[in-house]
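Running log. JK asked me to keep both predictions on one page so they can be read side by side. First protein, sequence followed by its tokens:
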Amino acid sequence: MKLFRAKAGLTTALVGMALMFGLALGAVTTASAATLSQIKNRGYIRIAVANEIPYGFMNSKGTAEGFGPTVAKRVLKKMGITDIQWTVMPFGSLIPALKADRVDMVAASQAILPQRCSQVAYSIPNTTYGEGLMVKKGNPKNIHGYGDFVKNPNLKMGIVSGADQLEFAHDVGIKDSQIVTLRANTDAASAVASGRIDAYAGTQLTVARLASKSDRVQPAEPFHDPVINGSPQRSWGGYTFNKNDQDLRKAFDKNLAAVQKTPFWSKTLKHFGLDQHSINEVHKKTTKELCSSKSS
């Protein structure tokens, strides 16, 4: 895990060795979650990302970017918070770190799912996107959707640890024996190209971006969205907070709603890859609906 500190546009990279050691051992702090007033009094907020483009990542200059960070910085500025300590960690470590109070919030555009809502508090939705599969160049096994894995139990699907695609796979009937867990999506292209997996499951944005970097893989086209409870699956992403940080979440939600009414918000989402249709869909679901098992 790496630590980055940003204040008033100035970014200084710091290596958080002690935090890295604690996270690696699964250490849990006994400190209670910091309140909004405590965050303002100490002068900075701690935010985690998984370094996944375009959701939340650190660029080559050490500046946080993506759907989550770019919008969050504008929201927090409205709240009077400009000093941000950014932490990079694997996707599967985000919620554990938040629950253990090692960070104050997560800006990784994590999909709002019932099992996550039981562990952390979500903001109002900030993004929405469809699903995709990455396959070998030429798609030799003719894979076009999750249903192909149900029809052929010999196919292997790669999914990043902690990603919501695992729930989608289970919901459509894909067996655990067909699932190969990947540590990060940067491992996906090589896993597909080498034949370790037959396809990598991710959002349409992640699949397209990763496939563009290798001439040995491609997005599965046409792609058929997984259908769950009669509806094509789509993910809505938001910010996550410790359940004890309700004052922080409520204040963030209020200011996020205001930012979402400005041209800055839609321009930011378009810049990082969302089309107008997806932007229009963001407010079609509420966090309450998405946290309910009946919302799928």
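And the second, directly underneath as requested:
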Amino acid sequence: MLNAFKLIWNFSSKRKKEYRNAIIFSFLEGLFLMAKMFAVIIAIYALFGRYPLSNAVIAVLTLAVFYIVGVFIFSYKMQLTSMSAGFGMVGDKRFEFGEILKNAYLGFFDNFSVGRINSVLTTTLSEIETSAPSALIRVVGGVLGTVSLLIGLFFYEWRIALISLLGMAAYLLVVNWQIRVSRRDAPKRSEAQSKLSAAALLFLQGIKVTKAFSFKNGDRRLKDAIQGSCNENIDLSSGSIPSQIAAGVVLSIFETAIIFTSVLGYTEFDIYSVEKCLVLIILSFMAFSSMNQAGSVLSMIGILDSALKETNSLTQMEQIQVASPEQHIASDEIIFEDVSFSYGNNEVLSHIDTAIKAGSFTAIIGPSGSGKTTLCQLIPRFFDVKKGRILIGGADIRHIPTEELMSKISVVFQKVYLFEDTIFNNIRFGKPTATLEEVRTAAKAARCDDFIMALPEGYDTLVQEGGNNLSGGEKQRISIARAILKDAPIIILDETTSALDTENEHEVLAAIEELTENKTVIMIAHRIKTVEKADHIIAIEDGRIVQEGTHEELLHRTGIYADFIHTREKASGWKLAN
């Protein structure tokens, strides 16, 4: 239990002061129970003539007002402060995760599914947001409030206070059992929620395929995930029910013990007066009120413990580190020195040695799976080399500050992703301070201004998630406009025209010419017209550079490049038979 509270406390980070204040308010709220206890004592003593009635009425009313006002003020302050601390704490953590994810290697997203990340950032953090403040504040405040009440009770009647103390200890033992049960089962529930989130995302992203190919059974994975989540929630609840009932039974037993002891003390042992006996009977229902309130929250500790560990696991991802000493880019020349790279045990690039001159156009060709895309992804440090090094302008990219490195590189991906925002903001993503005039200039260069202006809302048109309301060519041109606006000196193009029709390809190639003018360009290419224009061609096969040179040089050599050209020339010469 203490470890769980330590996790919450550490998780709260810079919100510790707010939590500390909320705990103090909770404790002060509990202290006002003393006023209620004094009011009960005075009222009963007055009924038996042991206290002047007129004075008793004034005292009870004063204590009642004192209790009501005090509880209202400190309960309000406690809830407001704890709510602010909870929302602020999780908000801070979400911002932190945003920075962490930005600085993670792409390989992390292969091992840590998007569904799991989504589950942590939404469901798991929402649980922490609402439950952690209550658990920490109610439990600590409840325990302190109960202890203060017991101290007062010890002065009034030590025997009953001792029974209450034993009841408190027994209750905490049962609650600890409850925490162990939920801590055992909560990770299974968390895993089921992650699977549900992943299945829901997969189902929505593939809804077109589901409708077209597997309308009847295409949602099987989602249904299984829903059922799995339901089963784990039921198992968690059913596992904790016995301990919850036991906790209530323990309190009832010790409340009964207080009543029984009070009655015996009056009837058999004559150690209590009738009025004191009545006071003790009433106090038996008050003695455990704060503890019972704290215990209801303690049942969530196991779930919270699992949620916090799941969330903290996200912070353990490997981050891109800038090695010392820092180095800075002096030119746009890119050099690979004996570079090798593996995905796990699968080596995809082996002993790559090549130089890409500043201002040159380099085309990379090779069969599918040869390592072309990986080679390009190593330049902006989407992954780090396993052996060798990559230099840009004489600086090892592992020593270049990330912001400086990324400011020098623009990447136009084969699979374009547009944000669910306006076209204007999607283009301006390349330069957040850009004006509309600058955005339109970039769009005109990318051959997309005309079709954007033809839309009803123009540049204010809202792009649907992933750009689903735009064609492939339109999305590609918008992404090129984004790169033009960024105006980075090094451009990486990943098979940008491979999935386009002839008309869109023509427009995109024209846009690429605007983008790449006076730049250092690395393009994964598959069309003859593109490759022929290259200053430098790299042919990759099985993760190795097998040929390198210009179009004219390689065309007359036997090898992968000549085969590449001849295959495409043959394909372009086909025609339909009459």
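Observation for JK regarding the second prediction: The mean pLDDT is 83.
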